[in-house]
């Protein structure tokens, strides 16, 4: 397979001093119409993300594949690995690491901040990467991070595979009290996919996330379930994402 990626240095640090790893870029083989940041899951890295994105046959998309900081993870008893934020047990009453979420969402926004004005920008990811993608979608709608600082990116697409929505309980109330937030939420296309046999992020959390987004005013959410699929991706699922991105973003496809 031809490989048109380059790697960029790390150096950006989040609020706790954890350093983000190396970023890999897959250049578009055709006209550059869109740029998407793709976010790996727990313990993975941007290199494997870039290889997956390279295989998707989307010649008009530039992919930016960063690597999360290496940090202690509560759910792993303090074991360190690459992670976008700290996570304990994924549950409806779980505590969200807002500092970590904001730091990673800000790092991702910075990666998109220098894209040309005529290029569509979006964010996608798998598992914990999907959680950050959805968190970024809520920051876009609200116009600010959890810290209150302005969110600077005009997101046009969000993809979440086998993930969940951090902060879902309070989202609806925040968006309903702002006309601008409701307008942005209703205009953002989102696709979520989840396997019914996922034993890492249970299916019900994916389904609940999609429902919570819809109830909060995200009117363009598509939720696809995959019967018997565990916590991994399959070609049929990725084909669905390719088709969705091509049609939603108006890409020229492989012409």
UniProtKB/TrEMBL annotation:
- Extract the PANTHER family matched here: ALPHA/BETA-HYDROLASES SUPERFAMILY PROTEIN
Domain called Phospholipase/carboxylesterase/thioesterase: residue spans? 24-247
Q: Listed GO molecular functions?
A: hydrolase activity
Q: Which Pfam families match?
A: Abhydrolase_2
Q: Which InterPro entries match?
A: AB_hydrolase_fold, PLipase/COase/thioEstase
User: What is the protein name for this chain?
Assistant: Phospholipase/carboxylesterase/thioesterase domain-containing protein
